[in-house]
Write a structure and sequence with these properties.
30% helix, 8 helices, globular
């Protein structure tokens, strides 16, 4: 395994209770590469991630990781008990034993530096996802693993979140493994796509995969205008609530002139 390879999974299969979860799957993630796993519910995406991270063992196949690999993980869901109020700052300190400087830097990097004292249960979907991303970044990861990072985030917020993820890759020069169920959300923020449905249906560059018959059979043909939402060039960005922020940094609603 060369210095650029972070994880190399070879011919992975997984069987649980005589049910085939994964069949003969190979996966390689390199430094500064964004790899996205897509597939329908039950395709085995989360199981493959757990195998790649060494959390479960495959029935057959092998996984090799870079020695001393630092991994930052962003879970798909976080259960928040509203009977036990916890601020964002306290949550991050408890979760990763971080100091104030590390917390400030991480929240600032994801555009959530105004949330230090906000209660975790009061956050919007977009705000919570950014806090979870900040928690993963505090680990100074060589590999970021993001499981459905746009879950609970509105359309504008999704596009902005994936641009942020791409920026993080560039700044930290880390590899990123993304898990999603829908290719059109990640078209502009990934280098390689692996379409999974217990086995690898197809893989390659996002635009190549989006035209592959195996992908079209799983997801159906996407409307070109829908894809354009995620691939066009913006002259603005979006705030945590999904509102438009113009070049001067001022927020405005979508219907403003």
């Amino acid at each position: 395994m060369d210095n650029q390879t972070l994880i190399n999974a070879d011919n992975i299969s997984l069987e649980i209770d005589q049910r085939q979860i994964l069949n003969n799957i190979s996966l390689q993630i390199n430094a500064e590469q964004i790899v996205t796993l897509i597939g329908p519910n039950g395709a085995g995406k989360t199981s493959l991630v757990k195998i790649a991270l060494g959390l479960i063992k495959p029935t057959t196949g092998s996984v090799e990781t870079k020695k001393g690999l630092r991994i930052g993980y962003m879970p798909q869901r976080l259960h928040i008990d509203q009977s036990m109020p916890v601020s964002v700052e306290r949550f991050l300190k408890l979760a990763v034993n971080a100091n104030n400087s590390e917390i400030n830097n991480a929240l600032g990097e994801v555009g959530a530096d105004s949330l230090h004292h906000s209660q975790l249960f009061s956050l919007s979907g977009g705000e919570l996802q950014r806090v979870l991303l900040a928690r993963a970044l505090i680990q100074e990861p060589q590999l970021l693993v993001l499981d459905e990072p746009a879950q609970g985030v509105d359309v504008n917020g999704q596009a902005e979140l994936y641009r942020l993820i791409s920026d993080i890759r560039n700044r930290h020069q880390c590899g990123i493994l993304l898990v999603s169920h829908d290719l059109h959300l990640v078209m502009s923020a990934t280098d390689e796509v692996i379409c999974l449905n217990q086995h690898v249906c197809c893989h390659g560059h996002p635009e190549q995969v989006s035209n592959d018959p195996a992908y079209l059979e799983l997801f159906g043909k996407k409307d070109a205008e829908t894809l354009a939402v995620y691939t066009h060039h913006h002259n603005h960005s979006h705030d945590l609530a999904g509102g438009i922020v113009d070049k001067e940094g001022k927020s405005r609603s979508d219907h403003d002139g």
